Amino acid sequence: MTQTVQTDLFTVIRERQSIRTYDPNVSISQEELTAMLEEATLAPSSSNLQPWRFIVVNDPEVKARLHPIANNQQQVLDSAATVIILGDKEAYKRADEIYDLAVQAGMPQASRDAYVPRMKEYYAKMSEDTARSVALIDGGLVSMQLMLVAKARGYDSVPMGGFSHEKLIEEFQIPSHLVPVMLISIGKASGAGLPKARLPIGQVTYWNKLEQ
What we know:
Structural class: alpha+beta
Strand content: 5-15%
CATH architecture: 3-Layer(aba) Sandwich
Number of domains: 1
Distance between the termini: 51 Å
Radius of gyration: 19 Å
CATH topology: NADH Oxidase
Strand order of the largest sheet: 1-2-4-3
Order of helices and strands: HHEHHEHHHEHE
Number of helices: 8
Largest sheet: 4 strands, antiparallel
Helix content: 40-55%
CATH class: Alpha Beta
């Protein structure tokens, strides 16, 4: 099944909801899931190091293995796919590859050669906590973009933080330099999501100083 829904950004933002009930008969092709991930990875990242890594779970047997790890949330079984979002704390090790591609896209070679060595040295010396924080922040950016992409294509999604990181790492043999960020189920809703409300913007926004 391939969706060709076209809509404007503001409609997508307003209509996107976290959906937990999915039509198990709806599938999304590997081709379209790949296209969605490509669109999601247009998100920004620290130094353009793109630390996101994805495990797409759409095989029923693998879904069954992921299900208890995700606290038995039914959407893992019923959605078309669940994407495991990971953040690479050692993304800087691919800086040469990334910036060589940037040169092919038009970045001056001199700019690449001046920037990359300094940037690699900076990230290599980064503390474990800071590297983890960067991976989680960039993983969050790509995750939100993926959910908006899904909605723009006519699909629904839900982000999940309720899962066992330890069991996920063990089951999927995730190496220590990769940090689990979240799970995102994608498919077609079989029912409406719950109404959502947001605090008035005036209660969460401050101008020029934090008011207590």
